[in-house]
Structure formats: C-alpha cells, structure tokens
Amino acid sequence: MPYVLVGDVVMSLAFGPRNGTGPLDSQLSAFAVGLPLAAITSLFPLTRPMSVAAARALCGVDGDRLADGPARTRAAKGRTAAWFTLHLAFGGVIAGMSLAVPPFAAVLIMLPVFAGLRDSGLPELFDHTWVLVLSPVAGVACLLALAGCAAGAGTLLARWAPELLGPTPEDRLAAAEARAADLAVRNRLARELHDSVGHALSAVTLQASAARRVLDSDPEFVREALAAIEDTTRRTVGELDAVLGVLRECEGAGTSPAPTLAELDGLLRRTRAGGLRVTATVAVDATALPPLVSREAYRIVQEGLSNALKHAGDQVTVTLRIEVTGKELEITLENAVPRTAAPRPGGGHGLRGIADRARLLGGTTGTGAVDGVWRLHVRLPVERATTSEGPA
Known about the structure:
Elements: H1 2-15, H2 23-41, H3 47-58, H4 74-110, H5 115-118, H6 129-165, H7 169-213, H8 219-247, H9 264-273, E1 277-283, H10 291-312, E2 317-325, E3 328-336, H11 349-360, E4 364-370, E5 373-381, H12 382-387
Parallel strand pairs: 1-2
Antiparallel strand pairs: 2-3, 3-5, 4-5
C-alpha cells in the first residue's frame, strides 16, 4: 500500500489528478509506478534477512535452503530485488482481489433473494431469470477463484524462494570456510585434550599402580611416585585451562601457555617416575626452535610416550632421539614390542593426532613394528615454520 500511494502521488504530479481516467486505471498506473520503487528499496541490507524470515515462516521453506544475512554481491542483490518485487506484486494483486471480490461475490449470491439489490443500479442483464439463477454459482466461483489465486501465488513464491533467496556460490564458499575453520578449531581442541589429559591419565595410572606394588618394600619410590602424580595432575590442570580458554574464545587470557620442548626434562622425569624406562638423546637447542615447532614436537613426544605407557607397559625401555637434520627436526621413539601386547579397544586416535600435527606443519610421520621393535619417526620442517609462524 505505501508503494501504491507513492505511485499515485507521482502519477498525480506528472499527469494531474486522475487525468480523466477511471479509478481502476488510476490504481493500475500507481501500481505500475510503485513496483520499480519497491525494487529500488529492496537494495537495503535488511531486505534479504526480512524476506528470508517471511519465506521461512509463511512459505514453509526449509531454512537450510535460504541464505542468512544481507546480500553482498551484485547477483545476490539482483535476486533479492526480484523476490521482493514479485512478493509485493503478488501481494498487491491478491490484496486488491481480496478487497473487491468478496463483496461482489456476496452480491451475486444474494441477488436472487433480495429484490432490492436488483433495483440498486445494476445493469439490465441482471433482470433476466437465467442470470439470477446462475449468479449464486458465479459468486461461489469468484470466491473459489480468489482462494485458488492466493494459494497459487503462495505456491509459486515458495518454489521461487530457494532460487532467489538461496545462498549464492560466494555465500556457500563463505559458509564452507566458516565450517572448515570451526572444524579445525574442534580438531585442535580434541588433539590437545587427547594428548595432555590422555597422557596424564595414563602416567598417573601407571605411577599409582607401581606405587601400590612396592608400597611396603620401597617407601622412597612411593614418595617419588606420589610427587610425580601431584606434579602431573597440577600441570595437566594448567594445560586443561589453556584448552578451555580456547574453547571460550579467550585464549591467552589468564591461561597457561602450551608446553614446549624446553620443558621436556619435566615430562621425562614424570614419565620415569611411573616406572617406564626412557633413554633420551636430545641434540637440539629447544630455545632456538620456532615456538610452533617446539610446541608440536612436545605434544608428539608426549603422545609417543603415552602410547608406550598404554601398550608396552613399564617392562620395556623407550629410546627417544631428537635432533635437527638439515632443515628438519627429527623425532624418533623406539621400544620393544612385548609378546603379550594386545590392541587396546577404542585406541588409534593418538597416532592419528601425531600425523595431523606433522601434516599441518608440512612434515611426515612413519610408524610400524620391524623385527619386534615399534618405531615412531616424525620429521618437522623448521625453516617453513619459521616463515609461517602464527597463533597456535
């Protein structure tokens, strides 16, 4: 109605009041002028969100088939303008029919009953008997036609809504990038939780088990194991706070930083306190490594030791070597495979996490058992990480 009123004003200013035309001609002219105005106003950013909300609520269109947010590209704005104009055009036509058809249909239905209606200036055609007999049928047909037009307009708009208000290729690309970023964050959180909390639980379990076995015979070992359990759990709580800080989108705000290879001695000490024999050869200056490589290398070593705790137990010796060869940091963990070793139900995520960490840095991972020795070998490029260092 506002667009029609503006169109009527424009027509009056351009051609004078009515200009000798009838009411219907004047209304159609105002309607024709109002539609282009509607197309222009549809370029406002809020038009598409409001149109999408209307299509979801009134047309029953699945929300996943419609785009969210304002139209940003030229193609999206053009499609939104087409929808908005069609919507108002159909609405204007159906509104005009709804105002005119029901009273006219009511007159046709009541015409044979009320003689006064025939004397109210109707054409002479309505004086014929056959017209009076058919006029109620015509009145009902007019009402049915109005209902059919309204239903047909709604069906067409519901069919066109996904085409005109659906996401453009740019919208789909932006949504895919957002989902990929969210998935990357979720995967990173899963790796961090698995590596830090999983390793801590494995180490604490082994340390408590070893302390229980020698509780009466070796009190000194029990004290060391309990101290290692206390240290492990305290550090794990700090690492868990860091991970939860990322989850709350406030990483670094009052949270503990992720550990690096500079803290490798503490990891080895806590692991040995649980009874696992670890021989380590570290031929690298941890402080000289890029922080990202140092953090990921720490997690890789932690997960490798955790796998040894879970699958090999404390009856084997784990050999750890960390060195820089050329432009790559090499991490190698080896341990004998116990004859009684059996696959752990639900396992397998640790090695996948190691492979993911190495792949994200452009490195490689090799695992497998050869001649009764399980070997984990990881290569991480140092130079590439130096040039592409970013937030971890």
